[in-house]
Write a structure and sequence with these properties.
alpha+beta; eleven-stranded mixed β-sheet; seven-stranded antiparallel β-sheet; 38 strands
């Protein structure tokens, strides 16, 4: 056996432990590496979870690009990162991570055609369907065009083009540098080049000259406009050989690096680089009118075009069948919501841009000021396997904030394709390039060792990243064993950012206790290959050693890198559960798995739940195998017939399942634009069909079952939400809106003053989510609620109860307690055992509330 070849090095330049637990592993090592060779003014792009005052965080050095909910993206000087992380206003700092991509027979299978026929007929008209994806949609495809040949897109936002450099605050001078990462040269990797320092003030001509000195940018490759900086932003657009109409601009990167602003020390002074251009419908129609198939956001990747075609293609493009056997005329490959309005957001490929893209679709900045928003559904068919898997990642919190408590908004996310298990002897050519066999979980015995084995195949040239999450109070050390070598030196928690030279490789480990986002412990470990060589192939071992005397369950995930073979756990260590990707673990998204309509069974690759905090995922499943939809094509000039080219192709994956649900949600919003996200999700749950054989849904494989678009639309109709019209009398019309938050808080405090009030609040807290779900989805509960005019009575009670106005004892000529009794009966019949017990135990108290004043609660006895 070869010697261990261990050299352990704690990076003295890494941040101290009291801030390390706020940084992700990649950022901690970047800080350490930068301290050895960089300049303190160099800037890092970060995502910051702000739990306090954003102004305080910005004053400490964050230059904000955008903020969604509690998450802000921006840049910070490496020299300021430690102080920024030490702020109590900052919970966590991450670096953006890359995301990865995850009809005709399928639409009838999920009853999309019947959903469109529900009276008076629904097609998505008036609803926005938005796709957020690293690929681009082919705007020339006729399935995305109206009968008059104009576009169906309201807006098209490409985040990869039009790079803007903006200075704010009282800046009079300074310098900055820009790094350009261009396409890879033949037989070589991509090269990063950095400009010489550029002085502020600067003009467009001076900025362009500085960029054209780089080897990868020739005269005529860029156009710089605007300026002079700092007063006016500068913008860089790629042209010439990098013209986005012929070259994928997503492969070009401009980074703002070392920045020094004069006079400095003023929080109002910032310099940020943003990217993106939003094209209007008029601009897109002008492109279509040129009839040359040239657009600055077009390349032949299929993913986004295929996804949008499923959700909302109108089928007006004819084309051959995928097997070439025959030609299908227009109207054959029709998506779920063929008359929906369309929005496309092309991202840079970083996962945080999914939230930025979702915000664009939902907030609809293309509308004139004051114009009403359309109901909108966002489809996200990509994500990342490296996350906390509990909904606490930055992108998930940002998306949650966009959807929470808003009517007419929903986000649908593909669960991911990491559910498949693979045999150890499977030939490499039969393995997918990415995905599957990336999760393993085992119990690490108290004061014991647990081994996890993984296989590295040949030509693994990129670093391999592992992420381990485990709960306290356990404490775990980590080591690796390469084929034919002794184990590496174990690294304990709170050792800082550690680098090990091992068996010709470099191991990088950061192990933290009590992550701020969720209180769990995390280890990130990376195997870095030798210079110019692949990682040693064969079976490696990852060992976890428990040292605190507590048996501890550890979950281990392997990062899946597109374009480079990634490790997979050996078959005995593979685990299908907890494989749902971020952002599909978010709380306010609809997560979709995939099944095969040929046999009705769940697809092997479909990711499984639960989340790490034990929430059920996915929500439901939709067709995801052999789904035929639109294909990105550049129509050749010689083409004289539609059936001479392939305008459609089959694909598989949860990426293709999610848009079936997104299209269904568009039909639901057309039927009832006032639906909230919670109502949409509850209806999809309640109307899902059970698979055969039924594994016992709802569960963490199928969710609630197979999508049933027809029943979902029927259940969404306002008539289905109230069997009889609701007529609010004057006595119950005290308010048609909820009272201010301060009044609600005063009411809560007053109710809590009595034992009976505290009991009522406890019952509401424990059962309100289930009651709301039943009122939205169970027909008997729904009818009872609306027949007793529950919404009007509830609003009246919340508004006037604190003022000692009694809750109405009757509504019209009907006693409210009669209607309340029927509602309690319906809830007990449809609810959980816990809800039934609560109704049985406290029914007399609940029936005594109608007609009561707040002071009466003090007199009611608690049993």
């Amino acid at each position: 056996m070869a010697p261990p070849n261990n050299v352990r090095q704690k990076l003295d330049s890494a941040p101290p432990n009291h801030v390390l637990h706020k940084l992700d592993g990649d950022l901690a090592f970047r800080i350490a590496d930068h301290a050895e060779s960089g300049h303190p003014a160099d800037r890092a792009t970060v995502l910051v979870h702000v739990v306090g005052d954003l102004a305080t965080v910005e004053a400490a050095g964050l230059w904000t690009e955008w903020t969604i909910g509690p998450i802000s993206r921006g840049t910070v000087a490496y020299g300021d990162l430690e102080a920024l992380a030490a702020l109590p206003d900052v919970e966590r700092i991450e670096v953006p991570r890359r995301s990865r991509k995850l009809l005709h027979e399928n639409v009838p299978e999920m009853r999309g055609d019947r959903a469109r026929e529900v009276p008076p007929g629904f097609s998505g008209k008036g609803v926005v369907v938005g796709v957020v994806d690293p690929d681009m949609v082919d705007i020339f495809h006729h399935t995305f065009r109206k009968p008059d040949d104009t576009t169906r897109f309201l807006a098209y936002f490409d985040q990869t083009v039009h790079h803007q450099f903006v200075v704010t605050g009282p800046v009079t001078g300074g310098t900055f540098t820009v790094t350009f990462i261009g396409p890879a040269a033949s037989g070589a990797g991509r090269v990063a080049e950095t400009t010489d320092p550029i002085s502020i003030p600067t003009t467009a001509a001076a900025f362009q000259a500085a960029l054209e000195k780089l080897n990868g940018i020739n005269p005529g490759d860029i156009a710089v406009t605007g300026g002079p900086l700092p007063g006016t932003p500068l913008a860089v657009d790629f042209i010439g050989r990098y013209d986005p109409a012929v070259f994928d601009g997503g492969r070009l990167v401009l980074l703002l690096e070392q920045v020094t602003l004069i006079p400095g020390h003023d929080p109002a002074q910032t310099m940020v680089k943003t990217s993106g251009r939003a094209f209007t419908a008029d601009e897109l129609n002008a492109v279509l009118a040129q009839k040359n198939d040239k657009f600055v956001s077009l390349h032949p990747a299929e993913h986004a075009t295929h996804v949008l075609g499923i959700a909302a293609g109108n089928g007006s493009q004819a084309g051959t069948t995928p097997d070439g056997a025959c030609c299908r005329r227009a109207g054959y490959y029709v998506g779920v919501a063929p008359d929906a309005d369309l929005v496309m957001v092309r991202t840079t490929g970083f996962i945080d841009d999914l939230a930025r893209g979702a915000r664009f679709v939902l907030e609809q900045p293309w509308l004139p000021a004051g114009a009403p928003h359309q109901p909108a559904v966002v489809n996200i068919s990509n994500g990342s396997e490296l996350s906390a898997h509990d909904g606490t990642d930055a992108v998930e919190k940002a998306i949650d904030a966009l959807v929470e408590a808003a009517a007419g908004r929903a986000v649908v996310v593909a669960a991911g394709n990491d559910g498949q298990l693979f045999a150890d002897n499977l030939p490499a050519e039969r393995l997918p390039k990415t995905g599957g066999a990336i999760h393993s979980t085992k119990d690490v015995p108290a004061h014991g060792t647990q081994a996890f084995h993984f296989t590295i195949r040949g030509q693994d040239l990129e670093p391999d990243l592992f992420e381990i999450w485990y709960p306290g109070p356990g404490s775990i050390n980590i080591s690796f064993t390469a084929p034919g070598n002794a184990p590496s030196t174990p690294v304990p928690p709170k050792s800082g950012a550690v680098r090990l030279s091992y068996a010709g490789h470099t191991l990088r480990v950061l192990s933290t206790i009590g992550e701020p986002q969720n209180g769990r412990n995390r280890i990130t470990a990376t195997i870095v290959p030798p210079d110019g060589q692949p990682i040693a192939p064969g079976t490696w071992t990852l060992r976890l050693i428990e040292t605190a005397g507590t048996t501890t369950t550890a979950h281990c995930w392997i990062s899946s890198t597109e374009g480079d073979p990634h490790p997979r756990w050996v078959r005995a260590d593979q685990e299908q559960s907890v494989t749902v990707n971020a952002p599909a673990n978010a709380k306010n998204v609809i997560t979709v798995g995939a099944y095969n309509i040929a046999d009705g069974q769940l697809a092997d690759f479909s990711a499984r739940g639960p989340t790490l905090d034990n929430r059920m995922k996915p929500d439901l499943a939709a067709p995801g195998v052999g789904v035929v939809s639109a294909k990105s094509v550049v129509r050749p000039g010689w083409l004289t017939c539609d059936c001479c080219a392939d305008f459609y192709l089959p694909e598989l994956g949860t990426s293709t399942a999610a848009p079936f649900v997104a299209g269904t949600v568009a039909l639901m919003f057309q039927a009832n634009p006032a639906l909230t996200f919670g109502q949409v999700r509850d209806i999809l749950h309640a109307t899902a069909r059970k698979p055969s054989p039924d594994p016992g849904v709802p569960d963490n494989t199928w969710g609630y079952g197979k999508l049933d678009a027809e029943q979902a639309v029927r259940r969404s109709l306002p008539a289905a939400l109230a069997d009889t019209p609701v007529t609010v009398s004057a006595s119950a019309r005290a308010s048609t809106f909820l009272p201010p938050a301060e009044k609600l808080e005063a009411l809560r405090q007053r109710v809590e003053a009595s034992a009976t009030g505290r009991l009522l609040l406890a019952l509401v807290s424990e059962h309100v989510d289930e009651v709301r779900r039943l009122v939205n989805t169970d027909r008997h509960s729904l009818i009872a609620w609306h027949r007793m005019h529950g919404p009007a009575i509830l609003r009246s009670a919340l508004t006037t109860f604190a003022d000692e106005v009694p809750i109405p004892a009757d509504h019209g000529d009907r006693p409210i307690d009669d209607g309340l009794g029927r509602l309690l009966d319906a809830l007990a019949n449809a609810g959980s055992p816990a809800l039934r017990r609560a109704i049985q135990d406290h029914r007399p108290l609940l029936l005594a509330v109608p007609g009561a004043r707040l002071t009466d609660l003090d007199l009611l006895e608690v049993h």
